[in-house]
Design brief:
With 205 residues, this protein is mainly α. 64% of the residues lie in helices and 6% in strands. Helix 2 runs antiparallel to helix 4 (66-98).
Length: 205
């Protein structure tokens, strides 16, 4: 939603004049952080019953199988994450078109990137939920899964620098395994680039 407010602010601020919008470079850092936090919150809310014995016994006593419960929660989580993004996308497209911005394909790319991040992060959350019996351990496992290799790399670098004078950095810093820390990798590499469009309030270029 912050992106929608950004669009509204830009259009309101430059009404009656020229507007340089949108697509020089869109950094998706805020989207990345918000999507990771949202995935953890949604996962904790949907799978909370598994961590309370009374709730788990009650839910599993219902006339539904455990695979059905699992897939219901999985689809519900994706729905919670994707539907708001789709709504923001359509509102953003309408807002752009109403102000003369015709090149809205970047909004489609933004939507696909956010849905991809949501799919990945929630999948990791579900995986972590299957391995823990404590709800507050779920976000801890999620964080460890996403930054473990990067943390090991930093630790090895510190160890090498302290123990071996004149030795170069450890092999993990060469970038071969940085994708194994997905959040850090996306934080460093995920962005959108394009060309600026200069328009006036009538939509003329």
């Amino acid at each position: 939603m912050y992106y929608l407010f950004y669009l509204w602010f830009c259009f309101k601020k430059f009404r009656g004049g020229k507007l340089e919008l949108l697509f020089g470079e869109i950094n998706l850092t805020i989207d990345l952080i918000l999507m990771a936090v949202a995935a953890v919150i949604v996962g904790m809310a949907l799978f909370n019953y598994l961590f309370v014995p009374k709730n788990a016994n009650m839910i599993h006593a219902l006339p539904v199988t455990r695979p059905e419960l699992f897939w219901t929660n999985l689809v519900s989580g994706y729905t919670f994450l994707f539907v708001p993004q789709v709504i923001v996308f359509f509102i953003s497209v309408i807002l752009c078109l109403s102000h003369g911005v015709a090149e809205v394909q970047y909004l489609g790319i933004w939507l696909l990137l956010n849905m991809g991040m949501g799919f990945f992060f929630f999948s990791v959350v579900v995986l972590c939920a299957m391995f823990t019996g404590q709800i507050f351990a779920l976000p801890v496992y999620f964080v460890v899964t996403n930054v473990l290799v990067e943390g090991i790399s930093v630790g090895l670098s510190c160890l090498v620098n302290m123990m071996a004078y004149g030795v170069s950095n450890n092999p993990l810093e060469e970038g071969r395994f940085c994708f194994l820390s997905p959040f850090i990798y996306l934080y460093k590499h995920l962005k959108m680039t394009g060309t600026f469009q200069v328009i006036n309030n009538r939509g003329d270029y």
